[in-house]
Amino acid sequence: MQSGAIPDAGGLSRRGLLTSIAVIAAVPLLDACGSPKEKGAGTTTEGDLSKALPAYAPSDLVKPDIPVVAGANGASTDPAFLAYPANPVRTVTGAVGAGGTYVTMTPLWGAIPPSSGNAYYDAVNKALGATLKLQPADGNTYADLLPPLFAADKLPDWIDVPSWTITKLNFGEAVRTKFADLTPYLAGDKVKQYPNLAALSTNAWVSGVWNGKLYGLPIYSSNAVIAGAYYYRKDIFDKAGVSADVKSIADLEAIGKALTNATAGQWAFDDLFGNDAGYICQLFGFPSQGYPWTTDSGGKLQHRYETDGIVEALNWHAKMVKAGYLHPDAVADNSQNAKQRFWSGKVAVCVDGTGAWNGDDAKSGAAANPGYNRQAFKLFSAKGDKPTIQLGNGASMYSYLNKKLNDGQIKELLAIANYLAAPYGSAEWLTVNFGTAGTHHTMTAGNPLLTEQGSKEIATTFQFLACPASASTVQSGAVQVVKDAAAWQADLVKYTVKPLFYGMNVSEPAQFSALGQPMMDTITDVKLGRKPISAWTEAVATWRKQGGDDLRKFYDGIREKFGTGK
């Protein structure tokens, strides 16, 4: 992905873009019993969901070098490409837009390119047959920019709304009053008039459905969204003669002992837990932060904080700290230089988002250590039995069309979205992502490479309005990285499970929003050995009294009215 693309979620507060994240809306309307009313609650029954979702019509116009592999419970690998097709196929014929002009707003991480005299913007708009007036905004402060626009009803014609921003927007109600209902245009077979949109999987659309109607267009969708991976330095393992065939937490602990040499400035591990336990939950079998509910043996809803798994994980991680297997900066809760610690070989095992494994990473790692080789452990469980991992939402970012648009304008923008959603390997994708050949990019070793002008003018903007499903592609010439990551993902998808309330857009009442931070703080203290496990037990008891039990009642109401999404 070129400059300005969305960053990998691992290690950032914006977890979930290609990682597991729940779509959490803001304050719902409550009745006297504290359960959500139908109007504006956001949640949808399974029956209404099936009526709103577009039909899935996969395309075979572009064939990946490494085909998609089907997994469990609707999961599948991303298509992988080792080189861009020499003769890209066109997936859109005839006119696209009807000459309209529209204002858009999207987040952007990186330098905002010039809007005036931008040949890239001009080239894409020419291909679209319309004028999109792009207004990219700083992704780091994007969540703070949206509430005033919603309150003043000054929304642009087309806007990207990431899932992590909607807690401030009363989105379950706002989506109904601010945005166009796309159900009449895209539900069922109606989507087939937009073939590239129809090629997005059913799972991609689920969290774009609110109150029984389809509103959102999915961005960077995938059927292999997980919290992240446990990575290791294969070159270090090979040199030390240490096996990477990890099948239990005991195997991982043995690696800690074998690869820690504090005198030589090398430690086996960085933080292996995550502030929200988003990584270690996959090993110890308790729910993620995004989907925190499970059921006990009697069918009662049980929060992740109440599980035995998180207690076992906290105890184990604190044990690793005490043994001295974690880098001192990790023990000090300093994650700022975590990537550099891994690249330089100061640590041999770390956790990160799936997007961290790419060609640019290989380039950075090789700059620090010529033998650098990042790999990921195959999924394993703490006890050595069959592992499972929660499948995240098919997309954690959606774009929406303003409700003030008329029928003709909505159809024009959907036709434009269909063009923007052309798959990797197509002529349209190359235009949207790399502009004009010779001006903005050249083909180098079979893949597009930005020119100096392209680097200045191109950033991820159009893609945050509509785009195809995610694909694994070569960066910085690192073909082997794509092959390795695709093989790992093919193994992983065999173990995916859908969590309770999957993709249901549950709108939690505002009074519960402050419950999580004290728990996160306690997790940090206990996992790093600053406080005993009894501090966690006390924190859970306090959480229950201060609202956790009431939150359970709220989700019992959701389960009764809407089901569990499974």
Give a short summary of the structure:
By secondary structure, the chain is an alpha/beta fold.
Notes on the structure:
With 566 residues, the protein is α/β, with parallel strands linked by helices. 34% of the residues lie in helices and 12% in strands. Strands 2-1-3-14-6 form a five-stranded mixed beta sheet, with helices on one face. The chain starts with 45 loop residues before the first helix and ends with a helix. 50% of the residues are buried. Residues 1-38 have low confidence and may be disordered.
Strand content: 5-15%
Kindly state the number of beta strands. 17
Overall 3D form: globular
Give the class from helix and strand content and strand pairing: alpha/beta
**Strand order, biggest sheet?**
2-1-3-14-6
